[in-house]
Specification:
By secondary structure, this protein is an all-alpha fold. The chain is built from 18 helices and no strands. It has one domain: MFS general substrate transporter like domains (Growth Hormone, Chain: A), CATH 1.20.1250.20.
Length: 377
């Protein structure tokens, strides 16, 4: 599954590194870039409630994952075949819907295997491999731009890693047709069968982090609008942040297996001031801001999921991932809309909003750390 995510990320993270500037070239405003990215995340997270329930009810983890990956990855090269930012937006939405379909089933598959090595490390390892793809995709885009292939050809060429991801997924399904058998029955029966009050508090806290997080397309839009760097360097910025994300996911994953929720608190604390650097610090500030941004993403995509896997019974894990991701997506969408509006009005207010969201989340997480353990179910 790590290899599947690696090639999938080459595809859609490569695309993601240039969708902001691409829509700017096609005439979209800063608000529309942020709104489209945010609404895409809302679809990508909110619909996971339904796919999570479907995953738990049917146990058809591989089938659901395959359908999601196909929808997810086919949407990317099609972006190079359309004209106008509105059609690009439609394909961004379909790509996110595909991700919504596949993620709860994929995360449940990973949860079964991760119990063997430590849940935090398992998700951290998966996220690290995921980010290798996240690094490679934007680098490929930079190479395409170096050879002056342009936006459209760059999107179309991403069909090849997409095909590789789907092929590996089919091989994984054949090798491990019953992933639930990878987890010991005693471990599988541990944990909550329903989302408890404490777990809801955790979900709201990490959702607040998502609300205060700017999507990369808006940061890229900001860099292009102010001519902070040349267009060809923007994908490299994204690649740099993916390296940071991969390394932080591995480190925080190991820490999570030892200190539980305190590792999540550390990740959130590191990312609290990313927006100040990214939007108000010039070229050097953008670099620092994206390092902090990458640490936060590393925590969000690894140990925040590991906490759900450790607290939920195996029979209800898909539902837990669904609620977690839906809440995160709704908060992220609202945050992206607010951040987009604030960007067009006052970058300083945007920064204050982002920092405040992080600080409230930190308070909730610190309070929760005294009541619940998340490194062991």
């Amino acid at each position: 599954m790590g290899l599947v995510s690696l090639f999938a990320d080459v595809t859609y993270e490569g695309a993601r590194s240039i969708t902001g500037p691409y829509m700017a070239v096609l005439g979209a405003s800063g608000f529309m870039v942020s709104f489209i990215a945010g609404f895409g995340e809302l679809l990508g997270y909110g619909l996971r409630i339904f796919s999570g329930h479907l995953s738990d009810k049917t146990k058809k983890y591989w089938t659901i994952a395959m359908v999601g990956y196909v929808v997810n990855l086919v949407s990317v090269p099609l972006m190079g075949l359309v004209d106008g930012w509105r059609m690009v937006a439609v394909l961004i939405f379909s790509e996110r819907i595909g991700k919504a379909i596949r993620v709860p089933a994929r995360d449940t598959i990973i949860s079964y295997a991760a119990k063997k090595v430590g849940t935090g490390y398992g998700y951290g390892l998966h996220e690290a491999m995921d980010q290798i793809g996240g690094l490679t995709g934007p680098l490929l885009i930079s190479v395409f731009f170096y050879f002056q292939l342009g936006y459209k050809a760059s999107f179309i060429l991403l069909v090849f890693p997409a095909m590789a991801a789907i092929t590996i997924l089919a091989a994984a399904r054949k090798a491990y047709p019953h992933p639930e058998k990878l987890e010991d029955k005693l471990d599988a029966d541990k944990g909550d069968k329903h989302v408890t009050k404490g777990l809801w508090t955790y979900i709201v806290a990490v959702s607040l982090v998502g609300m205060g997080y700017s999507d990369f397309p808006l940061i890229a839009y900001h860099v292009k609008k102010l001519s902070i760097m040349r267009d060809g360097y923007i994908p490299l910025l994204y690649s740099m942040s993916m390296v940071v994300t991969a390394l932080s996911a591995l480190l925080l994953g190991r820490l999570f297996d030892k200190i539980g929720l305190y590792a999540v608190i550390l990740g959130v604390a590191c990312s609290t001031f990313f927006s100040w650097f990214a939007f108000m610090g010039g070229s050097s500030g953008v670099l620092i801001g994206l390092v902090l941004w990458g640490i936060g993403i590393g925590a969000q995509d690894s140990i925040m999921r590991a906490a759900i896997a450790n607290r939920m019974n195996a029979e209800s894990r898909g539902m837990g991932f669904g609620y977690f991701n839906a809440s995160y997506g709704i908060f992220s969408f609202v945050g992206s809309a607010i951040i987009g509006l604030l960007y067009d009005k006052s970058v300083q207010l945007l920064v204050y909003f982002s920092i405040a969201s992080h600080l409230v989340a930190l308070v909730l997480l610190i309070m929760l750390s005294r009541k619940m353990r998340f490194n062991h179910a």
